[in-house]
Amino acid sequence: MNSSVSQSAATRGTLDATALREAVIGSVAKLAPRAAARNPVMFTVSVGTVICAAFTVHAAFTAQPFGFSAAVTLILLLTVLFANFAEAVAEARGRGQAQSLRSTRAELSARRVRADGGEDIVPATQLRRGDRVRVSAGEAIPADGDVVEGVASINEAAVTGESAPVLREAGTDRSGVIGGTWVLSDVIVVEVATDPGDSFLDRMIALVEGASRQKTPNELALTVLLSALTIVFLAVVATLPGQAAFVGAKADVVLLIALLVCLIPTTIGGLLPAIGIAGMNRALKANIIAKSGKAVEVAGDIDVLLLDKTGTITHGDRRATVFVPVGDVRDVELRDAALLASLADPTPEGKSIVQLARERGSVIEGRGGEFVPFTAQTRMSGVDFPDGRVLRKGSSDAMHTWASARAMVIPGDLSTAVERIARAGGTPLVVADDRRLLGVIALSDVVKHGVRERFAQLRAMGVRTVMITGDNPLTAAAIAAEAGVDDFMAEARPEDKLQRIRDEQTGGRMVAMVGDGTNDAPALAQADIGLAMNSGTQAAREAGNMVDLDSDPTKLLAVVEIGKQLLITRGALTTFSLANDVAKYFAIIPAIFAGSIPALGALNLMHLASPTSAVLSALVFNALIIPALIPLALRGVRVRPMSAEALLRRNLLIYGAGGVVLPFIAIKAIDLLLSPLLGA
Amino acid sequence: MEILIAFGLAILLAWPLGRYMAVVMQGRASRLDIVFAPVERLIYRWLRVDPARGMDWRSYAAAFLGSNVALFVLAFTVFMTQAWLPLNPDGVPNMSWHTALHTTMSFLTNTDQQHYSGQAQLSYLAQMTGIVTLQMLSPVMGLAALVAVLRGIVGGLNVAQAREGEPRDLGNYWADMTRATLRILLPLCLVLSLALTWQGVPATFGGAHHAVPVDSAAGMASQTIPVGPVSPMVAIKQLGTNGGGWYGPNSAVPLENPTPLSNLLEVVSIPLLPMACIFMAGAFVGRRRFTALIFAVMGTLCIALTTLAVTSEQHPNAAAHGIVADAPNMEGKEQRLGPVDSALWAALTTQVNNGSVNAMHDSMNPGTGLATMSAMLINMVWGGIGCGLLGFLIYMWITAFVCGLMTGRTPEVFGRKLETREIKLLSALLVLQPIVLLGLTAIALSVPSITGNSNPAFHGLSQVFYEYTSAYANNGSGFAGLSSGTVWWDMSCFVVLALGRFPAILIPLAVAGSLAAKRAAPAGNGTLRVETPTFGFAMLAVIVLFALLSFMPVLVLGPIGEWLSLAAPSIR
């Protein structure tokens, strides 16, 4: 991607000092009860910390030993702080990313067009939806909006990182402009599309800030499950003293709180908000602005991708792919003739012919001559050389007429070649010199490099791709086969797209589509994921639930991955967190009852040195695992294109089995380190 | 060997039975219609129901609850007035109000936890109307609920016509009840009861026999041997995962279980219908591999728990150490049956939620106690009729939720998404079990004056915890050793019984109702399939993690503590 150019240091993997400080301050600020209550699991830990602290203070004042309860209190406090830190780091990164986008338009002023045609100079922050502003070459566009008059080339590097200028024109599908980008040429009038504080960027910033962030549906469901587990373990721990007393064992309150904190799913509970924010960050980093967290999450569920052929699957311009000589003309003759005829041709097709000829080994240099450009009347172009030689290339029927007029012999295999190219979805260009017809150049819509592989990956993940094109079915089928899409819609009109989306949805499938035109808007709104191109019309951008700042339709593939990654990270860490409980039980249960029921020592599988060090080791592990997993939470579990079955097996092995084994080793290791300290 | 025969026979019989049940419960036409259809029409007319009218999950749940209330009132009345009612040759008095409440709830919930001794405290009429009616209908209610849920998870009967979000038809409760009773349970009971009568189980309306023992000089001048229509009741007790016997000591009494053949028949009948339900479920959702998944998961747990119980009973009883040679544990067992049969029965009866016993669970070794308690805590290794599979579905949904996330999609089962609403409902059920069981155990233990334990320490804790676990699991087997029949035990178990039964049926029904109305996504390469070994393995892990981790401390203080203390010679 070309997105990282403009991003500040805060947005790249590492945190700079300011952001780090911000995160540390944030993690303390989040201790406030109101903020803490948003996360039931960590709130339980906070309450436990307070109770432990109270016991410590009480013991200290009544001259009882309080070292152990003080240590427990401290570790619990750290656990909460680590969880808060995870969230704060994710927020800081997100905010940094969004700020760096927003700062580009902070202090812009605008020339607002009055009804009478005059202009007022106002700060950009005062612009309202519907205001019109005039922007000339060398000025910055003050707000998101649509070009309503004129055409201009615009440098969007500040937002997208892409340095090549883009063309924006009123009344076309490429009328959308972003605030903070620069007009390079001409004058345009832009109709402002958003009120201050309501731009896509503002909405995106809200998505990465913990306080105002809405929990996404899956996150909510997971929070419910985690809360239920917390309540279960609360019941376990709360009823334990009553049961223990019956068998003659005493259970210390601080120990019970330690047990509770170890059992409740603090790892996933602490990292859950960070995972959600990090998902938004990844979208933002890919220069995608999602209008809701839900949209990103839903992207992981997509079953069908509807992709416009042009610009997504193919380059959109026709390129020369094959030279087909006719009659007794040799390959190289046709190749060199095609090259000479096109050297001065400025069109993309002409350039691609030159490129192809060079690739095929032509070393001929230009010999001057007069270029005859293509016109709608002649439908051919070529070169007249000073020595009288003439080269022409053009559409088959135009060349036919031209050749007949010169009484040339039409070789028998010419029409076969022309037909074959047309049937394969290409455009045949016939080449001739002043004496005979040389052959045909096949121009075809070339499938983008790497697209086929991407589609194969998507198929492995269970996502079907459908190509939409206005081409005739023959051409469409040829390109579809070449690109490896699962299905295609030929001669598709906008209403066909809408119908296709509805049909897929009735079949229970989730559909994503990309669009930029106003006539795409209904389909974008109907699709479960509508990714609008930022270059597209305002209507399209409003209808979609995501906007791609790079206007790169292949971005949809990245969006699907980000959505899946978000869910997989949550699931994997939940599994890990639950699996950890096994080892923690074996550490703490024998420790709690070690004094009163020595026989339970047999459960001390890890042979931890002493009850005290067993409890503290388990707690320390429980606290440290949170910061240890922050990088994973922020980066996300790596998504490989494989079937659900394989993915599940892999993740169960890593996070399930690993989650059972790792704490046994880690707690033992911490115990080995701690016990000499405690041993005195 | 005997174990293999019992299991093999049960599975062999369950397979055709399950297919027959699918035919019956799907209401497909069969040759037996000539016999049953007229009777059914009579019943429908009498109940004034239209069997063709579909119900959504709410109406189905309401009908279920309504029928429970009606039966509760009926049975409670009989127990409270049996002294004045006919068919009471032995002059049994009315029940105390709290025992009557407990008994009614116990049989209504298919638990059959008995805080009374049947032969002494119930008249023939009470046994036959109150007890047998409930024993007959309560398993059928579980089956009906299961069938409704199975219809729901594939979209309901009106899946083809209904639009997304519209309530779905989960079948007609009254029709399901009638068909299941008439065409499945009654014929099966008839067959088993005849076989048992042939083996010598009494079936008579005559009063108790009086006998003069041959060694009457030894202190007992005469002995009363209560009899009655025992064999039909034993049949329904075994087949209907009920467990409440005619006699207090249940199937350890020779009159309930006279011969090795009768023992085999009774063992095989315990898991028969729950296993048949599994075959039926596969047919209902149209996936054979679903049946395979259930068998694999339940079978693995069954083998593990049964092995634990049987091997544990092969070891000598620690209390008898030094008294008898190192023989298997024979305390509290029928000499005729021996340790293997007794342990197998104990393992099965707790797994299957039956609760009938042929030995004293109280006297078994701690390992067996651990196995039986774990089986009841999990409560879905075969499980009760219908309810066992409902328990399986609950764990399946939770596993699918966690595993679904790990495959990168919103979790779904059979194409229908599990969202916050479903997870909330399931979470309520997850939370309920530990709160009820652990809370009441702690209370009961803290006030020893009301528990009246016969054992202190670990074993005493096991007794109390077992009683509540058995009640919550709607199992009904007793660890014994408690002074049950007191107000405290009757009333606390009354609450536990209700909480263990109704949420466990209503919540899956609600989840199925809500899943049914959702848009179903076709399965693709990216969708998680539940019928795979990987998922089965994940499910086992979730079951062990969820069901056992929450109870590990109490199990440590109970059977595990006892086990370790017995193993270590140097106990306090």
From TrEMBL, chain A:
This is Potassium-transporting ATPase ATP-binding subunit. Keywords: ATP-binding, Cell membrane, Ion transport, Magnesium, Membrane, Metal-binding, Nucleotide-binding, Phosphoprotein, Potassium, Potassium transport, Translocase, Transmembrane, Transmembrane helix, Transport. It catalyses: K(+)(out) + ATP + H2O = K(+)(in) + ADP + phosphate + H(+). HAMAP family: KdpB. The gene is kdpB. The system is composed of three essential subunits: KdpA, KdpB and KdpC. It is found in: Cell membrane; Membrane. Residues 110-209 form the P-type ATPase A domain. ATP binds at D345, E349, F374, T375, A376, Q377, T378, R379, M380, S381, K393. It is a multi-pass membrane protein. Part of the high-affinity ATP-driven potassium transport (or Kdp) system, which catalyzes the hydrolysis of ATP coupled with the electrogenic transport of potassium into the cytoplasm. This subunit is responsible for energy coupling to the transport system and for the release of the potassium ions to the cytoplasm. Belongs to the cation transport ATPase (P-type) (TC 3.A.3) family. Type IA subfamily. The lineage of its organism: Bacteria, Pseudomonadati, Pseudomonadota, Gammaproteobacteria, Lysobacterales.
UniProtKB/TrEMBL annotation, chain B:
It is a multi-pass membrane protein. Signal peptide: none annotated. Keywords: Cell membrane, Ion transport, Membrane, Potassium, Potassium transport, Transmembrane, Transmembrane helix, Transport. One of its GO terms (molecular function) is P-type potassium transmembrane transporter activity. It is found in: Cell membrane. It comes from the Bacteria. One of its GO terms (cellular component) is plasma membrane. The chain crosses the membrane at residues 59-85, 140-160, 180-198, 264-285, 292-310, 380-405, 425-447, 494-516, 537-560. The system is composed of three essential subunits: KdpA, KdpB and KdpC. Part of the high-affinity ATP-driven potassium transport (or Kdp) system, which catalyzes the hydrolysis of ATP coupled with the electrogenic transport of potassium into the cytoplasm. This subunit binds the extracellular potassium ions and delivers the ions to the membrane domain of KdpB through an intramembrane tunnel. Belongs to the KdpA family. This is Potassium-transporting ATPase potassium-binding subunit. The lineage of its organism: Bacteria, Pseudomonadati, Pseudomonadota, Gammaproteobacteria, Lysobacterales. The gene is kdpA.
